[in-house]
Amino acid sequence: MSDIKFNSMTHFEAVARLGGVAKAAQELQVTPSAVSQQLRLLEHQLGVRLFQREKRHLSLTIDGERLFQTTTQAFESIREVRNAIVRQRESFQLSLRVSPSFGEKWLAPRLAEFSKGYPSWNLRVDATPNFSDFETEVIDLDLRYGDGGWAGLYSDCVVNDLILPMCSPSYLAELRAISPDPREQLRHARLIDSVKAYFRWDYWLPCNGIQGARMTYPYRFDRSSMSVQLAKDGAGVVLESTSIAFEDLVSGSLVPVSIEFEVIEFPGYWLVCPSRHMNRRAVRLFSHWVSRVGKRDTDLARRFLADKQLRISFERRPHFGARDDKAAPMA
Prior knowledge:
By secondary structure, the protein is of the alpha/beta class.
């Protein structure tokens, strides 16, 4: 039995199930003579007759019936699994992973817009600070915070971060009471530290000519949303992005510390997955949607900041990849 060709078994099962060579040939998209040849080959290999041939009619022998009962069950199972795989591949089911703060502050408010354009989708969002292991986890794609270039993976920047120091209007009034100089204000300010951000105070302050600031950080968070909330509550100044704080800037619950400081723009959030996942229509459609919305909202944030007379400079922090926490996305 080990030398019996799978192709011969396929042809036999089709003839027995459909009741004729012509119908089997049509299903298999081969000629009737090719089907008959495979049947003769199988009978020769087994050493038994599988069909009784009476004129143009075929009927199974006892051996043929025994073989058909086994093969039809096996091939039906194969067809069911194949169809399930195809349905899953072409269905609009998507499982994605996103960092918690970005998921809460950026992605979640835009999913209502997504659902209107794609009402039949089944979307599962896993908000966690950990990157997906695509070889061991059932995840279609990540929305990752980082600087790109993950080895062996497809990646596309979908949202640029726009970074600036922000605080509540009431706290800014306290700082201005100390000094009209924004650099002097930050020397005396309570600085809220987002510990997983790419641009943190220890890098930003020297770059802006500020020495002697309180670098002890009375508040440190690994969740950007918590840092932003504390700044809104008037507890200090946060160095954060419009991706997390844009609505608070628009509402006025957060304000830029000063127009003297340039806004830093850099490619911050990336759609990441194995290249093979892009063969799925659902992954491609979501990728196109999130990229379009990300570029639209980045442009909106740029215009908003420009209207506030803030200057924007594009920057990719040099040698950032050497940091120990590079592998961890911002929560």
